[in-house]
Description:
The complex is a heterodimer. Chain A is α+β, with helices and mostly antiparallel strands. In chain A, helix 4 runs antiparallel to helix 5 and helix 4 packs antiparallel against helix 11. Chain A contains 16 helices and seven strands. Chain A is 49% helix and 11% strand. Chain B is an alpha+beta fold. Chain B folds into three domains: 28-151, NADH:ubiquinone oxidoreductase Nqo5 subunit (Beta Polymerase, domain 2), CATH 3.30.460.80; 175-208, no CATH class; 210-261, no CATH class. Chain B contains six helices and ten strands. Chain B is elongated. The two termini of chain B are 36 Å apart.
Amino acid sequence: MQQPNKLTPFFENLNFERDDNTMVINFGPQHPSAHGQLRLVLELDGEQVVKAYPDIGYLHRGIEKMAENMTYNEFLPTTDRLDYIASTSNNYAYALAVEKLIGIEAPRRAQVIRTMLLELNRIISHLFFVATHALDVGAMSVFLYAFREREFAMDLMEDYCGARLTHSAVRIGGVPLDLPTGWLEAAATFCNKIDHEVVHTYGALLNENRIWKMRLEDVGVISAEDALSWGCTGPMLRGSGVNWDIRKEEPYELYPELDFDIPTSDRCDSYGRFMIYMEEMKQSTRIIRQLIPMYKKTEPQLMAHAPQYISAPKEEIMTQNYALMQHFVLVTQGMRPPKGEVYVPTESPKGELGFYIKSEGEPYAYRLKCRAPSFFHTGLLQELLVGTYIADVVTIIGTTNIVFGEVDR
Amino acid sequence: MRKYVPKDNVQGKSYYTDRFWVAPRVPRTEVEAEGHFAQVLTTLAKLAKEAYVELGQMVIHIDASQNFEVMKTLKEACGYTQCSEQSAVDYLAKDGEFELFYQLLNITEAKRVRVICRIKQNEAIESIEPLYKSANFAEREIFDMFGIKVNNHPFLKRILMPDDWEGHPLLKTYPMIGDEFASWYEVDKIFGKEYRDVIGPENRDQARIERYDTKRFSRVGYEVPFDADISAGETKTDIEYSETVLVDYTKNSGKQLDERR
């Protein structure tokens, strides 16, 4: 115990007096580099981390509990609050799980729009990663440039659905809106901009930057075997040389028709992962460019036709009695999917985002489990941080790209 | 008479149920005679009690006491190198059991398998942490949310809820707005138990409207007729009530319509 007096004040975050001469420091939960509400308890021997204990739960809102108390459509906006950096990917993962459960498929135009939004969200999330990672490591200017482009991407999202952060831009069975006029042209311009900026601004500032490389190379090394065992997915897994991307391996939406590459790295360190993020942004723009001509060939239907589960379009509800009745039942009672269980994985910007839904045939899910990539990446910290120096702790937290909305749920 | 509410499941329920509605079931198919899933089943042999394919993924029911053995076989002989997710489902009200599931992934074959076992209320399950390190956090979450003990876990401790929390939030008996303990938790923690009488329990009902709350505008003279007494017998408090006044613009009189009480 500390015994504070005038000469030795009480140190809130430090515990000096230990038998083995190590120091325990408390990192967070309000640390700017902790990317949210992460509390890390680090045991230090000099500057080296001997033991790390990630303490989570500061943003726990009981989203899985809420899912059991809401009808399927009611719950959809709540999924925005999981990974709030790229909320459309959460909406999509949830909508896809429910669609698979009730056995419907979104119409072609909705699929094109969804895929575009998913890739746009991937860019938003990756820009955020590059910006905050660079800021954590000490490169201030990259943060400013990357956030500038992220604003443009969020403007595109705002043009589409009216929201910048919590989009709810996907519905079970399709999308709520068609693209506004001029959106495709704006998206194409944005893709050109991102391609240019990734190479000539962030790439030029960071890729061969001596300080950046010194801070990232051989920091946070994780072998492929460990990455698999700890449940790492997404860039964390591909950064360890495992070529695994759900968009390619278990394709969903329009991904089987699209031509794109999966960047991997054998470096197993933070620098390799950073390069993957940079390359993935370019691949995302490539996907969006391919989707623009596909959109023009589609029929205007936006929501799947499945009257038992999904409300008819507004025009039908306002003109046809039966559609109105169906709509009334679906709004007041909610849809009743068949009994069964489903686990649907999707490749969110952070990794494998999957929803497990257990339905007992009621309008409320009997159990919903959100498999969040960041939760498992946070678990990894307790092994990854051991043996590193305190200066690298922030780099390693940054490279895992964890978002606390989905860690704590 | 008060409406009957079952105490063993206090989660959201539909207000209307059709007596003749029989919920259909998602189709389950037999495991095909050849292919990857059939190989897995032959490797598992007697360990698998029941197996079928549901929506593209094989589901294997096993005995809860053999979970480590099954996982070891699946990891080492069948190439299921990643445990994507594991959690539990509360069937205490219906069967007095928990259902645990393990969602496994084979990266080389791009196949997924779900292993399901059932345990009784006070039974413990063996940890699979030596096989899959992702179980470290996942099993702590199961313990936190359902109170299921996990044997041989390196550090079984609450993960999302505070360490001194009582109750397990994802049980069906646990109400969404929290129980008695939850409503006193912050009062006890911040002010101390002796302040319970002064402060009162935390109101965790998200639909509650505070009359003297001037930030939310649900009661600013719109739902009640003009000139009605809206105090509902409450005594005046120090908290300022909204100063909105309604003026009669229609007759050009500019007369103030409601006298605030």
